[in-house]
Amino acid sequence: MSNWEVPHEIRRALKITLGILPALMCVASASAAPPMDKHFYLPDAAASKIVSVSKEGTPEAEVIVLTQAVAIKETGPKETVAKFGEVYAFSPTFIAIRRETPTMLTFWNLQPDDEHDFMLAAPDGTVLMHLKLMPLTKTSYIFTFHKDGIFNFYCAVHQPEMNGQILVVPASAK
Hints:
By secondary structure, this protein is mainly β.
């Protein structure tokens, strides 16, 4: 390894951190979004040109997104929890959706004592929405993406491990 070559582990950590940073920084600018409360909101008028989100409608597809406890204090492994703290993940971490296809995302928070959230960011890092996922609840919204691209999603509480991507592909020919 030359003096200028960065080890794979450091490159990966930097990629994750730099990928998350714009989305986390945008949370502060999200106050213009219609509030569910001051910290949790659905897409505002500008963001709705990228993705529309609604509690009502007729979805053409559904994806269930689970919160998973990977390593927690109650069940360990103790060495992992001691070194990294509690570790959670979304499952699945990758979702493919067709543009202009109403798709219900149903979030199941399976933990009895841990809140999670769902923060969706546009390909440019702008935060489009932020939802609270209360313990032992199912939360459903119908998403209709109007732009193609890769949309990152995060649990802002459990970073860097709890994240994923939605790939929006062109609408099917009808």
